[in-house]
Task: structure prediction
Amino acid sequence: MENNVIKIDPLVSVNGVPFGARRAEVWEHFGTPDCSFKKLVDDAIETDDYGAFHIYYDDGYRFEAMEIIAYDEVEVFYGGDRLPESYSEVLDYFIDKYPDTDEDDEGFITEEGSVGVYMDNDEDEIDTILFGRKDYYLDN
Result:
C-alpha cells in the first residue's frame, strides 16, 4: 500500500484507521513498519517507524497518534482540505479552525484539535506534524 497520502478525519482516524485501534489493525492497514523502537530507554511501549511517519500507541498498544516526520514526502488532507506546504500557511489554517492554537519559538499546538507542529528552522518549513486522538495533548 502507498503511504504517501495521509487523510486525517480530525480526532477520529487516519486513512480510515480509527484512533484506539489495536496495533495489529494498524499493521494490517499500513503494513509492517520499517522498524519499531523505544523513544526513551525506559519506555515500555514501542513506536512504529514507517519512514515518512511514526505511529504512537498508548499503554495497551492502541493507536493514539501519527507524527509525520517527512512532511515534504507526503500529501496531507485534514478533514478533506489539502494542507499547505509552508509552516506559516499551516499555522494560519489551524488558527482559523482552533482558537486555542498556541505558537511558541518551536512551532504550535492546539489541544482542542490534538495537532502539534514542530519547526526547527527559519525557512518556513515543517519538520514534523502530529495528529492525535481526542485529548492527546491534555493526557500527555
